[in-house]
Amino acid sequence: MFGDSISVQDGRSLATRLAGRTGDPLAVHNWSGRPTAPAVDVLAQWARNYGLPRRILMATGTNDIFTPPVFAAQVDRTMAIVGRTRTVVWVNVQIARTAQPVAVQVADQRNGAWINLQLCEAQRRHPNLRIVRWAEYLAAKPTRLTVYLRSGVHTTVPAGQNARNELIVQALAAAR
User: Fold this and answer.
1) How far does Cα 151 stand from its chain's mean position?
2) What percent of the chain has pLDDT over 70?
């Protein structure tokens, strides 16, 4: 898993859940505040140094709301690194920083939707890309936004963490 601060917080719980469900270990490389480009740099380095497993989890994109036009190229770069025989499971984003003014929250949501749209468009080009639809899961019941997110970004513990991690484990298990 290559992730950002949400993954820093939730990674250990995810690894435990995944191992309990499928028996699979989870190697992690998470970094708070990391946009996707540096995560893909690390993925490329990891591929050179260690090789890659059959499934790669990308849990980045939230920090790309500040420069959404660069995101699609990073998804394509990821897919070029992993090739056609490995599956990439990518968690989409939901962000609206509640401590910020409403205009910022609206911009966060707009840019988050742009990130998610780019991810959907990439899935059309890359049949081995799977999306964990975290944003859609949260939107399905509006109360989930406050129950499962704190500050409009990070998952609450344990409710949001468990919900997001369950979606990820389901996607990883389906990609076996």
Assistant:
1) 18
2) 100
Alpha-carbon distances of 72 from 79, 116, 125, 132, 150, rounded to whole Å: 11, 10, 11, 17, 27
Q: Which residues 6+ apart lie within 8 Å of 136 measured at CB?
A: 92
According to DSSP H, which parts of the chain are helical? 5-22, 36-50, 71-82, 102-125, 134-140, 143-148, 159-174
Q: What is the pTM of this model?
A: 0.97
Residues 6+ apart with CB under 8 A from 26: 1, 11, 14, 15, 18, 19, 57
Q: What is the pLDDT of residues 91-114, one digit of tens each?
A: 999 999 999 999 999 999 999 999
Q: CA-to-CA distance for 112 and 109, rounded, in angstroms?
A: 5
Cross-strand bridge partners of residue 89: 57, 130
Q: Look at the block and give the residue holding tokens 């509006």.
A: 142
